[in-house]
Amino acid sequence: MMNDSVLSIIYHSSFIINMLILSLDTSTTVCSVALHKDGVLLGCHELYTERTSAAMLTTLISNVVQQTGHELNQLNAVAVAKGPGSYTGLRIGVSTAKGLCFALDKPLLAINTLAALAAQVRSYFPTDYVLCPMIDARRMEVYCALYTTEGEEIKPTWAQIIDDNSFNEWLIQSPVVFFGDGAAKCRALLGEQTNAIFPDVNVVPSARTVGQLATHAFSENQFENLATFEPFYLKDFMTTQPKKAVL
């Protein structure tokens, strides 16, 4: 097994042609797998489901790799959406990605789910717009971040409880585009503001854009430590206490 420093030297010292990256995104209710060659999408399978399972993900991986005429041992890296998102979904995605990397002796790349979400829409808006991808959290809370349409991070990922004053400091400066499955709860409170933009299109996380960003991350040697890497939960996992039985 090659350690991280050796991997970095190898990939930094040589340009890989026909670079294959397998990408996984299980951070929300969409379970998706994509295969990219030199940044070009070869195949993608997406499954819309309320709960992701390891069996579902394994099947999608097998289908994408085989249907594009490749084998797992041809991969140069595995990328995964690291979060934020569903606790269970993230655990499944990251565990599967790490398992593949250990078994195949390949490096791991981790992409912020919100950054990949923003990458889907940034070419559709002018450069003076701010992009705010949102993932639904509990009650009136969302996970969000702010990006320029060039992909530059304006404000890193944080958990926001939505109220009438949310995002005011950015809305008074420029148009802000809110999208993702957390945008609906924000629209009810901010939809009347002039600079608040809510596209009438369903934008969901996808391994398609995880793979695009992972290609750049690969070229920058942004590999994760397989032994210590954990999903980006943003918040501690909350459980519901079981109710006591009434005798």
Automatic annotation (TrEMBL):
InterPro entries: ATPase_NBD, Gcp-like_dom, T6A_TsaB. Gene3D superfamilies: 3.30.420.40. One of its GO terms (cellular component) is cytosol. It comes from the Bacteria. Residues 50-164 form the Gcp-like domain. GO terms for biological process: tRNA threonylcarbamoyladenosine modification. NCBIfam families: T6A_YeaZ. PANTHER family: TRNA N6-ADENOSINE THREONYLCARBAMOYLTRANSFERASE, TRNA THREONYLCARBAMOYLADENOSINE BIOSYNTHESIS PROTEIN TSAB. This is tRNA threonylcarbamoyladenosine biosynthesis protein TsaB.
